[in-house]
Amino acid sequence: MKILAVSTSVHRYATSGIRTGMWLGEFTHFYDVLTEAGHEVDLASVAGGVVPIDPVSLKTPVIQMGGTNKRYEDPEFMSLLDDTPAIANVDLDAYDGIFLNGGHGTMYDFDSADLSRAVAHFADAGKVVSAVCHGPCGLLGVTLADGTSLLSGLKVTGYSWAEEKLAMRADEVPFSLEDKLKAEAGEYSTATVPMTKHVVVDGTLVTGQNPMSASGVGEAVVEQLER
């Protein structure tokens, strides 16, 4: 089966101009879990083209923060980020689910109308909708075909405000993802200890709290696909 992964196209914080983008380890860990299980993963982005990488994700230890392992040094793998299609141009019917990759850039462009339509397309079809860390920004404000909110009554997780503070990004981000998820979802939860694995599954919706949850999201998605 095939999963469509989607990345941010934003490479700087609007407030300071500090570089941001995709958190690479979240993509590599999710990708590895899915492909090792025999599934395919294609990467798209909001605007198309080269995917920006948050430089911090290249410096963070693998074990502590869901880092990039050896994938960054693999030219063939990294070529997947070189020329991605824009989400508006993707044939959504060719995929069995969607994965919204994290990274702070998502806080600026995952409110894209094209991305919202894509997420609704998968949800309305009863297909897997998954997201990790800041990826759930793409779940906010999504309206389904019946006029209801995607997150209404559902259990969800995503990057917490405590984690924004620990990452020293509380003064950079445009909003609190935790607060917005609490406002839209039926229930928002986090791990007892920040920066530790936490995955929530509610029907065909799979969300992970932080980079350490990317593999867990992948495993939960595999379970959904193989039912």
Automatic annotation (TrEMBL):
DJ-1/PfpI domain location: 25-224
Signal sequence bounds: none
Cited Pfam families: DJ-1_PfpI (PF01965)
Keywords: Glutamine amidotransferase, Lyase, Stress response
Organism from which the protein derives: Corynebacterium stercoris
InterPro entries reported for this sequence: Class_I_gatase-like, DJ-1/PfpI, Prot/Nucl_acid_deglycase
Family according to the record: Belongs to the peptidase C56 family. HSP31-like subfamily.
Domain of life of the organism encoding this protein: Bacteria
Protein known as: Type 1 glutamine amidotransferase domain-containing protein
